Amino acid sequence: MFVRLFRLWAVGREEQRSVIPVMHEEACKLGYKESAALACASLFELVEGRMGRKLKPEDGSSPKFSEDERGLIDLVRTAPSLMEEEGMRPVPDGISAAIRLAASCVCDAMGIVANPTDATFDRTAHYLQGASPATITNAEHARGL
């Protein structure tokens, strides 16, 4: 669902129109919190600003993820562990406080409680520095990220 919201947002960005209401409707249909669409849109905008370029989605009907979608998934998977009080991890280079907070809001709104590996942290840092993220598995795709 997270990737679906990103793809809706990207279409709106390209067409220069707000798709927040459509994103909100989609998220609410599946029982996510009222804040899910806005949290996602904020995260996408912050990451684009950090990257200095437009994020690229895969085709809307494709079961595959684009490199940017894989990077966003890693970022969201990383966020819960970065924000926990106990066992606070060092923040990878490139992940600003605003991006961490936005990603944590997405996790809260969508019920994401992932526990990423060290490799996820490394991929997230490299992605936000402009490198290509590693491949996300079909199992992760099936879980709705």
Can you walk through the features of this model?
The protein is mostly helical and 145 residues long. The chain contains 7 helices and no strands.
List the helices and strands and how they pair.
Layout: H1 2-15, H2 20-29, H3 36-51, H4 67-83, H5 97-110, H6 118-128, H7 138-142
Helix pairs in contact: 1-3, 2-3, 3-5, 4-5, 4-6
Number of strands: 0
- State mean pLDDT (0 to 100 scale): 77
Task: Tell me the series of helices and strands, N- to C-terminal.
Answer: HHHHHHH
Radius of gyration: 14 Å
- Percent of residues in helices comes to 55-70%
**Alpha plus pi helix count:** 7
Outline the biggest β-sheet.
none
Uncertain regions spanning at least 5 consecutive residues: 132-145
Shape: globular
Q: Give the termini separation.
A: 6 Å
Return the structural class. mainly alpha
Beta-strand content estimate: under 5%
Quick structural overview:
60% of the residues lie in helices and 0% in strands. The chain has helices spanning 2-15, 20-29, 36-51, 67-83, 97-110, 118-128, 138-142.
What are the defining features of this structure?
single chain, 145 residues, mainly alpha, globular, disordered C terminus
